[in-house]
Amino acid sequence: MTKFMRGVATASLFALAAGIAPLPAAAQQQTPAKAPWSNARLSPDARTALVLAQMTEDEKLTLVFGYFGTDFPPRNNFKAPAEARPGSAGYVPGIPRLGIPAQWQTDAGVGVATQGGAARKRGRTALPSGLATTATWNPDLAFKGGAMIGAEARASGFNVMLAGGVNLMREPRNGRNFEYGGEDPLLAGTMVGAQIAGIQSNKIISTIKHYAINDQETDRDTGNSIIDAAAARMSDLLAFQFAFERSDPGSVMCAYNRVNGVHACEHPWLLTQVLRKDWGWKGYVMSDWGATHSTAAAANAGLEQDSGFPFDDKPYFGAPLKEAVAKGEVTKARLDEMASRILRSMFAHGLFDHPVTEAPMDLPPAMLAKHGDISRADAQQGIVLMKNAGDILPLSPSVKKIAVIGGHADKGVLAGGGSSLVYPVGGNAVPGLEPKTWPGPVMYYPNAPLDAIRRQAPGASVTFVDGTDAVAATTAARDADVAIVFANQWAGEAFDVSLTLKEDDLIAAVAGANPKTVVVLQTGGPVLTPWAGNVAGLLEAWFPGTQGGDAIANVLFGKVNPSGHLPVTFPRSLDQLPKPSAPNKGDTRYTEGATVGYKWYDAKGDTPAFPFGHGLSYTSFGYSGLSAKAAGGTLAVSFTVRNTGKRRGMDVPQVYVSGAGWEAPKRLGGFRKVDLAPGASTRVTLTVDPRLLGMYDEGARAWKIAPGSYKVMLGSSSRDVAQTVSVRLGARTLGVGWRP
Ligand code: BGC
Q: Ligand 1: does its nearest atom lie under 6 Å from the Cβ of 83?
């Protein structure tokens, strides 16, 4: 069962689990100074072998079994282990006798979360959503954000962060799209990989999740993602692979769903063949909370840690695993390997040498202020200016009358719901909205756009109406120089969303009353924008994090020149999607294969509302001098970008490639975020990963690049190509384990 499906377990089952994993008396452990594995000059493998040789079977079993870190009354009145950090996602006891530290686990990708049921919440810094960070197309910023939330995790006493969501956006209605990196494998893998690397720079472990093909929330526990293996390698798995190569995550979290009929956490092909044999990864797999469904099958398939007891129907590791080892259903060697992989990641990522300590619930205000700056910088670069007719934006500070409408803009900015929810310092700015319990509460961070707008236009009369009364809204709009409508759609874990905004009629009415209408969206992912033709300005602010109100106002008034680009396609209508009537329960057949996102629209020759890669600026950029060279099988692309406008600004030139017989007319092959003063230019050189130039052949277990002519395109979006050149590539075959 997942957190969403609450049930009741029997007392004996919990006793069984707890019986095999005796909790240590002390929460802190120090590696005995004389222990040979305390020698940091030895390799993680050598240190692992040394400590493993000293471990009893019960100690190994302790390492592979995790507890929920928060009391959970619906499950037989489950009480979190006393040593768990209060209100946390998970806890795995350490082995004090050997100096093996406990694993203190916290969600998730935007910062240090607190579980819904916790009595006290930690006030922490929330980054903008994962999709917002991806929309920056700036891996350096993603690294910085990761480093920041990882620092808060360490400062909060955690050494495992359950971050790294990189599920490809196949289904725009997926309620968790906000946690992920969009629809393109290169972009998602690059950005999420950079964030994981940033988190792990704090000498803690980050997961990468949810492995794999967990692309909708409807029926997530039993739903079955049916996909061709080669197509998966070229899409969802490729996003994971790129992220792995950029970050070497200590742990993988396997997903709730089934893949081609088999649950992801007992899937030998996914967990052993692909992850370890093909990609050569050395970390450990932990289950999502309640995603384990068997003992021997899961352990033998490649699951190392059964997480979050009591979320499974019953404990599968712990006592049942001990029994399975006794019966020979799981070999002693496999149990050794399970414990070894966990220990190896703990050594490799600094958990032994840089122990975390028990931490106060509150962080120093100076730290939070510094971290707020990082969150705001991320939000500002992730906001996408989608439309700017008649240069309505940036607003002049001398504008006289502004009507701000809706979206609780007088109170704060929206956050995504579920296990990843970070509670802010200052509490929920709009308490009491439904649902109040998990995956709620619906959270508004107390950084109100209205206040920030007022600060930026001190001479203006800025009125606010809440948008519930269309007459009041249109009256305010008619009376103003400019109307700014905030349209928010909450999204979260364990449910999917509709692409239709409840504010559609309001926006249409306001735009009818005043053509100088700007819409600011706060959404988890793409939505339908039937009114887009009638508004002058459109900003997508996603879920913009704890400093989101300031970030939005800074972009509206031009203190910040927008530079975000869409990491996802905005459809014109549902019938443009591969599955217009999904998400459904049961089997989801991904017959579109690797033709995901913009590739689908390109393949169908269909025009979306706003294409992947799109994003405007208050300045303009020109591209020239595109050249492509293939030397020694490597495709290098160079070009010049010039700021042809009057303001400093950042651009994201994008390189797309096109080959014969591919799943789609083009693929993103590379991108670079550049910062240019007016009139300045820069020469950019990118290399295209050769796996993006070939087709994966599952029979041959190889990427095959066909000899011939390829098109290389340079553009400001997937649909706005400025220059094209052709290049000849020779035949090349890359084994399944190839990496740069
Ligand atoms: C989510 C995971 C999360 C875990 C621990 C699950 O419900 O799917 O992403 O890390 O809970 O809170």
A: no
